[in-house]
Design a protein that fits this description.
Order of helices and strands: HHHHHHHHHHHHHHHHEEHHH
Mean pLDDT: 78
Strand order of the largest sheet: 1-2
Distance between the termini: 68 Å
Number of helices: 19
Number of strands: 2
Strand content: under 5%
Helix content: 55-70%
Shape: elongated
Length: 368
């Protein structure tokens, strides 16, 4: 087994070489040996995927060298695709080796004259998604109310993220490992973008087939057909709950990150998520309570102002808009929001006079 672990430890080096200028010296035989190693790693994945202890040992060995991008046990199953994509994107690969690579991808050993393998279809789908993300697009208008329309490039990134999370879950990876992988992936994105992708992923998990707006229906018909995920995995309430878990843990596990997330997103999008994830709604209400408690009433201006204008917190106007959006959400969310505001007003003395309690003024402004 130690010999197998030593071989697996060479996978990051193989992928690194495939992205480097060293491939300019590769001939057809060198390419064939690299592809044979990739298929061997895929064989190891298929052989040990049902054995948790060995699977974890292989994953630890892959992570030992801290490769970039991060690799785990599921990478063994995608090794032919990872290697093929790296080589196809490397312009240093000689033309003869490139032609050999294309023939190998289109007709891997043992496929005969049957249909194309799922691996190539998956590779093509992800490459097409990557091309889509590079296209400049005009952001579509955001509709009113808690329902949100996702930008195409953000939606594509979110679907790819959900696809990988489902793969990790189906491979039987432990929850802590999924969280580490997710954290490393999201850290590679600039912060506003990572927040948008996580919010879009959480929203997609709560959008069942047939709930898309007319403008999205034609584009997404193949994706949503029969409740399947973008990579063909069947969608289910239980599975989606497991997929949402790492996303929520990453988001809510750091108060500063969650605060920046809420400041970054439109309040209508946050209200939509709060209406579907009770854990997020509780944290969101707690955050709004924290922001509101730091406002003080300025009698000269006749309004509530920030104690420290430089702090990254919501102003009175923003706070009012956020609570109004929550009250326009689901009946349960509306009830929870009103109950929280009334409790806060009671703690402040239950006054009905403007300027004494920010919670009294908020209830009066939103009409309760």
């Amino acid at each position: 087994m130690e010999a197998v672990l030593g071989q697996v430890e060479q996978l990051p080096a193989l992928l690194a070489v495939s992205r480097s200028a060293l491939v300019r010296d590769w001939d057809s035989l060198t390419l064939d040996r690299a592809l044979e190693w990739a298929r061997y790693f895929q064989h190891l994945h298929d052989r040990f995927r049902a054995r948790p202890q060995l699977r974890e040992a292989l994953g630890r060995r892959l992570r030992r060298s801290q490769p970039y991008p991060p690799l785990g046990f599921p990478a063994l199953g995608r090794c032919p695709q990872l290697l093929g994509l790296a080589l196809l994107e490397n312009r240093a690969l000689p033309p003869a080796a490139c032609r050999r690579l294309l023939r190998s991808l289109l007709r891997p050993p043992g496929t005969g004259s049957g249909p194309q393998p799922r691996g190539l279809e998956l590779l093509a789908r992800r490459k097409a998604a990557a091309c889509l993300l590079a296209l400049p697009r005009r952001p579509p208008p955001q509709p009113a109310g808690p329902e949100v329309r996702l930008q195409p490039e953000v939606r594509a990134e979110a679907e790819l993220l959900l696809s990988r999370l489902r793969e990790e879950r189906q491979e039987g990876g432990e929850t802590a490992g999924q969280r580490r992988w997710l954290g490393r992936v999201l850290e590679q994105l600039p912060q506003p973008r990572s927040f948008e992708v996580v919010a879009a992923a959480l929203a997609l998990l709560k959008r069942g087939p047939g709930t898309e707006r007319a403008g999205d229906a034609d584009r997404d018909r193949d994706t949503d057909r029969a409740g399947s995920s973008p990579d063909g995995y069947p969608a289910s309430a239980a599975g989606d709950g497991c997929t949402a878990g790492p996303l929520l843990s990453w988001l809510l596990g750091n108060q500063e990150r969650f605060s920046a997330f809420c400041l970054c997103l439109p309040c209508s999008h946050l209200a939509f998520l709060a209406g579907h994830y009770s854990q997020l709604s509780r944290s969101y209400l707690d955050l709004l309570t924290c922001w509101g408690s730091r406002l003080h009433y300025d009698p000269l201006q006749g309004r509530w102002v920030k104690s420290c204008p430089e702090e990254a917190e919501a102003s009175w106007e923003e706070l009012k808009e956020r609570f109004s959006c929550l009250c326009q959400g689901s009946p349960l969310l509306k009830e929870q929001t009103q109950a929280a505001l009334k409790l806060l007003r009671t703690r402040d003395g239950d006054f009905n006079v403007c300027g004494l309690s920010v919670w009294t003024d908020l209830l009066m402004e939103i009409g309760y």
